[in-house]
From TrEMBL, chain A:
<comment type="function">
    <text>NDH-1 shuttles electrons from NADH, via FMN and iron-sulfur (Fe-S) centers, to quinones in the respiratory chain. The immediate electron acceptor for the enzyme in this species is believed to be ubiquinone. Couples the redox reaction to proton translocation (for every two electrons transferred, four hydrogen ions are translocated across the cytoplasmic membrane), and thus conserves the redox energy in a proton gradient.</text>
</comment>
<keyword id="KW-0812">Transmembrane</keyword>
<keyword id="KW-1278">Translocase</keyword>
<feature type="transmembrane region" description="Helical">
    <location>
        <begin position="6"/>
        <end position="26"/>
    </location>
</feature>
<keyword id="KW-1133">Transmembrane helix</keyword>
<dbReference type="GO" id="GO:0030964">
    <property type="term" value="C:NADH dehydrogenase complex"/>
</dbReference>
<keyword id="KW-0560">Oxidoreductase</keyword>
<dbReference type="GO" id="GO:0048038">
    <property type="term" value="F:quinone binding"/>
</dbReference>
<comment type="subunit">
    <text>NDH-1 is composed of 14 different subunits. Subunits NuoA, H, J, K, L, M, N constitute the membrane sector of the complex.</text>
</comment>
TrEMBL record, chain B:
<feature type="transmembrane region" description="Helical">
    <location>
        <begin position="30"/>
        <end position="49"/>
    </location>
</feature>
<feature type="transmembrane region" description="Helical">
    <location>
        <begin position="91"/>
        <end position="112"/>
    </location>
</feature>
<dbReference type="GO" id="GO:0016491">
    <property type="term" value="F:oxidoreductase activity"/>
</dbReference>
<feature type="transmembrane region" description="Helical">
    <location>
        <begin position="6"/>
        <end position="23"/>
    </location>
</feature>
<keyword id="KW-0472">Membrane</keyword>
<protein>
    <recommendedName>
        <fullName>NADH-quinone oxidoreductase subunit J</fullName>
        <ecNumber>7.1.1.-</ecNumber>
    </recommendedName>
</protein>
<dbReference type="GO" id="GO:0048038">
    <property type="term" value="F:quinone binding"/>
</dbReference>
<keyword id="KW-1133">Transmembrane helix</keyword>
<keyword id="KW-0874">Quinone</keyword>
Length: 102, 171
């Protein structure tokens, strides 16, 4: 048990975070950008759980619990904002949402 | 070969592949389904790491509640011109991949430089004990009671905020 080296989990987490970064930069659909942010949050969660398990300490898992709460709140409010923007602009393309640009 | 290492390899492969598929599919619904697959693979990895409670919460809250919310919004919004949202400018795409690869190399360098497993000798009993619902519940209701209450308040505020934002007209 716990025979997988810790670095493997951390590298997987780093890879998923990187894919999330690439998703935010490449995609123009606001909802997919949101999903990429969820992916980044999850990769951070994986790091928390890895350290928590290998240290035998439950504080990391409590942090993950709070991260999940905040992610749920963020998803609800963010999707409501996307719906409100879609009602005005009839689009979820983040290149067209530029009312704050000077 | 050890069963734990095989399980890790399979789950890690599924998690990595589904995350790449998520950002490369043109259809947002298929992206969402790949994200659900990724969350399930992560729940399996949490089980491998002896985090039983978090693994179950991951399936219920993330793969269940949050992704249903995403799919529901995708259903509500008319995104028939979906493929046009996929970026066509090659320059920006290569630039984005370059930035992402730079971030990955940076993190991987730091991980191998710090070499965390050198100083750690994992204690199996303590690891199993730290993931049980009893330990986490005890911590949440004693040392972390105030953050727990605040997160409940945050959820209430988010619910009200989402209702107000998504309402048709402000009256």
């Amino acid at each position: 048990m716990l025979q997988v080296p810790m670095e493997y989990y951390l590298i997987l987490s780093a890879f998923m975070f990187t894919v999330g970064v690439a998703g935010v930069l490449i995609r123009r659909n606001a909802i997919v950008v949101f999903m990429s942010i969820e992916l980044m949050l999850n990769s951070a969660n994986l790091t928390f759980i890895t350290f928590s398990s290998y240290l035998g300490n439950s504080i990391g898992q409590i942090f993950v619990f709070f991260v999940m709460t905040v992610a749920a709140a963020e998803a609800a409010v963010g999707l409501a904002i996307i719906i409100a923007i879609f009602r005005n602009k009839l689009s979820v393309n983040i290149d067209e949402i530029n009312i704050f640009k000077w | 070969m050890n069963i734990e290492i095989i399980l890790f390899a399979v789950l890690a492969l599924v998690a990595a592949t589904s995350s790449v598929m998520m950002i490369t599919r043109k259809n947002a619904v298929i992206s969402a389904v790949f994200l659900v697959l990724n969350f399930f693979a992560l729940a399996g990895l949490y089980l491998l790491l002896n985090a039983q409670f978090i693994a179950v919460v991951q399936v219920i809250v993330y793969a269940g509640a949050i992704m249903v919310l995403f799919l529901f919004v995708l259903m509500l919004l008319n995104t028939e011109a979906e493929h046009q949202l996929f970026i066509d400018k090659r320059g920006i795409k290569f630039f984005a991949i370059f930035i992402a690869a730079f971030v990955f190399i940076e993190i991987a360098f730091l991980i191998f430089k710090s070499n965390p497993s050198k100083n750690l000798s994992p204690d199996q009993a303590a690891s199993i004990n730290s993931g049980t619902i009893q330990t986490i519940g005890q911590q949440l209701y004693t040392n972390y009671l105030i953050p727990f209450e605040v997160s409940g308040f945050l959820l209430l505020a988010a619910t009200i905020g989402a209702l107000v934002l998504a309402k048709k007209k402000f009256e």
